[in-house]
Amino acid sequence: MVELAFSTNAYTEFSLPQALDRIADAGYDGVEILADEPHAFLPDTSEDDRTRLERHLDNAGLDVANVNANTAVGYYDDAPPSAFFEPSLCTATDEDRRWRIKYTKDAVDLAQRVGAPAVSVTSGRPLAGNPPEQAREHLTESLHVILDYAEQRGVDVGIEFEPELLIECTAEALDLIDEIGRDRLGVNLDIGHAAVYGEDLTETITQSADHLTGVHLEDIDGGRRGKHYHRIPGEGDLDFEAIFATLDRVGYDGYATLELYTYPEEPDRAAEESLTHLPNV
Prior knowledge:
With 281 residues, the protein is an alpha/beta fold.
């Protein structure tokens, strides 16, 4: 049976302990930890911070559904106001790519420590001077290094596809998994991203069923081919009854995580109202 979690990336106006308490108070059993500013940017997360995190999770009664290592805002002294994926696993610059590989390994260590089954990452974008075929080579090489590390620690790595990234749809994610050929590589399936790309969500879930490391949920206004803006369930057009029925049919029994970073000024409302609009799970 699917369980619900909520990502701390909606609570960027709060400290990580505050976010955990509020997510638990809203009624969630699981939490996704943002491995970035302002919660757990790993180079700045000390041993004492990690010990306190373990203790706080235990006191709040929260399982960790996923460690979200998608973004790298903390890498920059003056980061842009939106989610930022660079440096990524497909970045052309060797030094920057090595930084991202190490950062992902650190996220794997954090996942192992807090009992999270997986770490999510994105492919990044093929930016100027780094055509898709070259970026793809960088991505596959990076993933093999990370998977060597993750396999020894019993942690899965989930690629989260997103429109306009190098890996931007279900077919490309599954093709990558097939090419890499490693058991610990899967898909962190963001339902809204699939909808924006124009996919049939029942087919997407069914095709991904054997490779799911996690699921992200949000509503999309306009449904398939809607604009990429994460909305509280009930504020868009996605059919969550059908989504959960399909997850149940394929036997997915992990966490579905609400990812509503678009509500930093009212994360409590996002957390609470989401529960009222989702099927009883």
